[in-house]
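dumping this here so i dont lose it
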């Protein structure tokens, strides 16, 4: 069963494209990644799915129901963490969360305290006294307190330190094991690779590709920066090397191929430094999908 179905979803703001002809099916129980650089159309797609804004054309169904016509009904079973969060500053955290919980038809109190303990969130502080990271924790608890069937996360880890990010990932994985479907939007490829089963990549408002994460990891480019004296630049003109850039004592390039061959080549050179990195999403778009 598909929990979410996008069919030719298109949203324009006047003459400005938000997203165009988006077609994605997301299965029940899946952790689905949605990645792209900032401004690619991720938040527009999500807000349209939640019927916070209306599509120009196309359709979205959630739980088998039209997301616009049945938006009020559908949202009861959705937990949503937006990329930017704004609250009533003078409220205490616990009062805000209990107010949010009052919109649901079951008691969420124990879940609030359970989530707050996991995320190390002080429930007695006022919103205005919280750091950005702690406000993000409030958003996480608010989005999960009613044990939603569908969890929608839009850039959820911004503001969280690495330790708290890992706790958050563990929390989402646990909710998924309990049956929740997860739609995870991010511009950080490593996050999506860690958590998701499949991923849709959006660029300039259009879906570039939908990939199994294992395939994406296997086929990804690596970015090499080589430093040393008297480098023989011509030796890097081999299969799998693209975007070769040369300076006097430095060579940089992208490589897709047998990493053992590259290591063997580097072992023949006199080097002062080697840097091997994951490319940015923008670089993947440019070098992997063209």
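and the seq i came up w/
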């Amino acid at each position: 069963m598909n929990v979410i179905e996008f069919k030719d979803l298109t949203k324009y703001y006047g003459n400005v494209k938000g997203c165009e002809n988006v077609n994605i099916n997301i299965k029940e129980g899946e952790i689905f990644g949605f990645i792209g650089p900032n401004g690619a159309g991720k938040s527009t797609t999500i807000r349209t799915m939640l019927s916070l804004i209306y599509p120009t054309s196309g359709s979205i169904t959630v739980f088998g129901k039209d997301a616009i016509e049945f938006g009020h009904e559908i949202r009861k079973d959705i937990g949503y963490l937006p990329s930017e969060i704004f609250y009533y500053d003078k409220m205490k955290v616990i009062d805000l969360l209990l107010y949010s919980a009052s919109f649901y038809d079951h008691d969420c109190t124990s879940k609030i305290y359970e989530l707050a303990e996991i995320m190390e969130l002080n429930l007695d502080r006022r919103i205005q006294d919280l750091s950005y990271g702690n406000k993000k924790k409030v958003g996480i608890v608010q989005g999960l307190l009613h044990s939603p069937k569908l969890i929608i996360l839009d850039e959820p880890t911004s503001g969280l330190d690495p330790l708290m990010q890992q706790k958050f990932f563990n929390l989402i994985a646990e909710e998924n094991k309990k049956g929740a479907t997860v739609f995870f939007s991010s511009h950080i490829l490593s996050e999506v690779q860690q958590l998701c089963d499949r991923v849709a990549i959006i660029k300039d408002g259009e879906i570039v590709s939908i990939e199994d994460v294992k395939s994406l990891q296997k086929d990804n480019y690596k970015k090499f920066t080589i430093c040393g004296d008297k480098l023989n630049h011509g030796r890097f003109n081999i299969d799998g090397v693209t975007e070769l850039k040369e300076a006097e004592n430095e060579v940089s390039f992208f490589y897709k191929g047998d990493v053992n061959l590259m290591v063997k080549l580097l072992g023949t050179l006199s080097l002062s430094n080697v840097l091997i990195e994951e490319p940015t999403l923008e670089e993947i778009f440019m070098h992997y999908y063209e």
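The chain has two domains: 2-217, 220-287.
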